[in-house]
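Hey, I'm writing a tutorial for new members on how sequence and structure tokens pair up, and I'd like a real worked example in the thread rather than a made-up one. If someone can provide the structure for the chain below, I'll link this post from the tutorial.
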Amino acid sequence: MGLSSILLLQAPPIPSLSSSTHFCCHSSSLPPPCAISKLQRRPQLFPSASPPSRGWNLSRKRCALAARAAAGGSAAEALRRILESPGIHQGPACFDALSGRLVERAGFPLCFMSGFSVSAARLGLPDVGLISYGEMADQGRQITQAVSIPIIGDGDNGYGNAMNVKRTVKGFIQAGFAGIIIEDQVSPKACGHTRGRKVVSREEAVMHIKAAIDARRESGSDIVIVARTDSRQAVSLEESLKRSRAFADAGADVLFIDALASREEMKAFCEISPLLPKMANMLEGGGKTPILNPVELEEIGFKIVSYPLSLIGVSIRAMEDALAAIKSGRVPPPGSLPSFDEIKDTLGFNDYYEEEKRYSISPSQPSYQRGTVYSPGMSSAYNTRLTTAERPEQSQRADDPSDPVVEVVTPYVYDNFNSGDRSRQSGMWSRSLRLKITGRNGLEKLDVRIPAGFLEGMAGVIPGLGGVNIMQMLEDASIEGGPESGKILLDFNDAMGDRIQVFVE
């Protein structure tokens, strides 16, 4: 997480743009001039450019979320603080959890989820209305869970009428979005910089914004409503300005006209409802809107700016170059390919390993059979002790027909046994044995495969084996030429009435 995200969490609260108070020229809830002056003099919380934070990891993200929760904040409230702070704030557009994480790691205070890029990455299809509400909400949920900075989601046109808009807004709230963009295109909608754009009537577009605000209120949320119009290309600049004023009157939090064609049009847009934040869209690589730097955009009057194609665009080019290199018999050059350690650091492997240590258990071998305890480092390879007498409730459960028959192969035994007498590494001593204990009721209590040397330590701990020279019996079996698999070496009932059998594997 970058410095800007930390400052966001530590910044003292400032007057919020509540969903019921909208600072527009038509509102009667304007703050006094002194309040505006003080607000404008507050230090900027987020620099326009922050150096990448190489130490980003899962723990820092969780700490950021915990700090925000402790302060009673939400992603939407964090976004509102950004909108209320001086300066312009950049938000690259991500398309999945990894790209969202990289945006946060680079130090940006907010991020957009681009419908254009999600359609490309998730479906491999153009942004022409083919992707669905469910797919967008699911993709957004993956992104918001991977980061701690606020995410503004692309809600398209709400995927239908005003009732569909309400469902979309509620779904985006549940997915964890801090803001949602609702536009006025007809279905099927498409990228605003492509040809053939059509919009619904101004009255219907306003009702969609009102429906979005109602959905927010009904959900008890404070999600930021970004009202977008595509009427600049579909109708005219004048119509787009009228719609923006109407959206402000309806209660939108941020205004956005897509595909403005000149610097002059951008200035005209920022002059309406001057106290409402304006969003700019710098469509890289040849869109209809002039590409301006953040300083120029701030001078015009914009508050937030998105870069919708940078990440998906460079990803496409990088993958094409890598595939061309592989096809020619090479691998991508080091300059374009992070090291494996760098990739692991980006994904949080090292932090995962550190956190995993918090839940590690002792190195002793756990018990695999109810009532049986295995622990290395005893006088023999293992010290096995049946504890049913100490825990009678486990003795009862051992007779349950649902109890599993557990097969245990223990690596410690091989290591300890092989370090002993070298003469015992051949013949019978290299064989495995099967120890089977059957209760008086005919149900199996234990069924394990063990190295032959394991029995040397079992004679003193299993009732009924006391006084039986297991090792001599194995020596005799070896002298006899080595028994075939399945031969029974021992078969008797112990003092508790359990049947003990030892087979050669």
